[in-house]
Design goal:
Blueprint lengths: L2 H26 L1 H22 L7 H29 L1 H20 L4 H29 L5 H30 L5 H7 L2 H11 L6 H6 L3 H11 L2 H15 L14 H18 L3 H15 L3 H26 L4 H25 L6 H30 L6 H29 L1 H23 L8 H26 L1
């Protein structure tokens, strides 16, 4: 075969590999789209549930309807990691699609607040499980040099889902606001991407790293050859084999008795909580209520909320581009400084401009500024780093525990925010988030490592080496003292 023909064949194979990888990414991130829609739709549905929906909501039941999904997501994240480790990433996502459909229909036809809370909890199980399984799956199929871009496409789909929720909320709320069933129409739309996710995952292959961890090296190599050049696939399977030597045992909590793995877990939990204590989901879930509190009417608040969705999508696209240029850790710190500044200004100006016509527009502008920093830097880096830092044999479990803590913090914020807003007002509530942001910045500066530019196996080796050095230092100190 001539050199030109060989190059043409090689180019054709490369395009096929890239095309399949793009298909896998697009299909699996419909789990992120559902994550975004189901967390964002409640933002516009809640006011109608309370006024024309005949659910007789109080601040407490309002908080429970919004946050029951988050509590479910915490448990979904915990068990989702174990399920994906046991049954595979692909099969777990298939199960999730069915749960998304069933729980969404349950919420849509809920006759009262109690039934709504129960089905929102079940929906949360699906959201939490997806928040663990999809980024893990994407990290495990991605080439190291493109992992940041591919994994953070899930975050892009999350904010696209939220934007779609805000847009449909505004359209349906403006045209059908007098109907007692208006919020039901908002909720039921989520069944459509769930159906797409289920059918799409039928044609997606399993994670090669999960297959290798189960001893199915031949299947793992076959999948790698579908999404990599042959020489790259051969090299990668060697790295995977080396990484799992001596770790083929079943993952369990006993693995975290090893100091170096326990350290990674504590860092993962810290990163997860840092993402939440910015207060981002007080805006994502209660943005309409915040804008109404500032002075907008319900319809204007719903339309204003679209700006939050649009800036989130733009910011994540910018963040994905930025990940190729900038290290993860500086991005996280810059994002935290930006969100803290926006929250501080909301708190101050809510006092200074109270009762003025300018206040709602100022608050809307500052929430847009807040989300620009949050989505471009903090959220993109959070989900990426959580999918990167854990060793292969505990990746699902470790990410599950970390994401459990993320959703637990999310639940506490989602439940308490309307109560705080009702009792201490908007300014004092946002000042609390400012104080928590300061603690988050200090944590990231002291403990969070840099992960950019290294394969998952290289990161695992680095953490192991750090653990050995730390153990040696402790042993030397003990010997010196004795």
């Amino acid at each position: 075969m001539s050199t030109k023909k060989k190059e043409a064949v090689k180019e054709k194979e490369s395009l096929a590999h890239k095309g399949l990888l793009r298909t896998i990414t697009l299909v699996s991130t419909f789990g992120g789209l559902l994550f975004g829609y189901d967390t964002g739709v409640i933002n516009g549905a809640l006011p109608f549930m309370a006024t024309v929906g005949q659910l007789n909501l109080t601040p407490v039941t309002e908080g429970l309807i919004a946050s029951s999904l988050l509590l479910g997501a915490a448990f979904g994240a915990m068990f989702g990691g174990r399920l994906s480790d046991r049954h595979g990433r692909r099969k777990t996502i298939l199960y999730l699609a069915l749960l998304f459909i069933a729980a969404t229909l349950g919420c849509t036809f809920s006759p009262n607040a109690s039934v709504m809370i129960a089905f929102r909890f079940l929906l949360g199980l699906a959201v939490g499980c997806a928040s663990v399984t999809v980024p893990t799956f994407l990290a495990e199929i991605s080439p190291a040099e493109h992992r940041g871009r591919i994994v953070t496409q899930n975050e892009l789909m999350i904010v696209i889902g939220q934007l779609l929720a805000y847009t449909f909320n505004a359209i349906i709320g403006s045209t059908m606001g007098e109907s007692a069933n208006v919020w039901r129409y908002m909720l039921v739309i989520a069944t459509l991407p769930a159906v797409v996710l289920w059918f799409g995952m039928l044609i997606v292959p399993e994670s090669p790293r999960w297959l290798a961890a189960k001893g199915r090296m031949g299947d793992a190599l076959r999948v790698l050859r579908q999404i990599r050049e042959d020489s790259r696939a051969q090299q990668e399977i060697k790295e995977i084999k080396h990484a799992i030597e001596g770790t083929a045992k079943k993952a369990g909590f006993h693995d975290f008795q090893e100091p170096w793995i326990r350290r990674i877990l504590l860092i993962g939990i810290g990163i997860a909580i840092v993402q939440q204590i910015t207060g981002v989901n007080s805006i994502m879930y209660y943005g309409t209520e915040i804008l109404r509190e500032a002075g907008f009417q319900t319809e204007a608040a719903l339309i204003g909320n679209i700006a939050n969705g649009v800036i989130s999508v733009i910011a994540v696209i910018f963040g994905i581009w930025l990940l190729g240029k900038v290290r993860r850790r500086p991005m996280l710190i810059i994002g935290q400084i930006g969100t803290m500044t926006a929250l501080l200004l909301i708190g101050i100006l809510s006092i200074v401009l109270e009762g003025t016509p300018a206040l709602p527009y100022v608050v809307l502008s500052l929430t847009v500024l807040f989300l620009a920093f949050q989505q471009a830097a903090i959220s993109t880096v959070t989900w990426l780093m959580l999918s990167e830092i854990f060793p292969m044999h505990v990746r699902g479990l470790g990410m599950g525990i970390s994401t459990f803590c993320l959703w637990t913090a999310n639940f506490l914020i989602g439940f308490t925010f309307p109560i705080l807003l009702n009792h201490i007002g908007m300014s004092a509530t946002f000042f609390i988030f400012v104080a928590m942001n300061i603690l988050a910045i200090l944590f990231v500066k002291k403990y969070v490592p840099e992960t950019k530019g290294r394969s998952l196996e290289q990161l695992e080796h680095s953490f192991r080496q750090y653990g050995r050095r730390a153990d040696q230092e402790i042993q030397n100190q003990t010997t010196h003292l004795s």
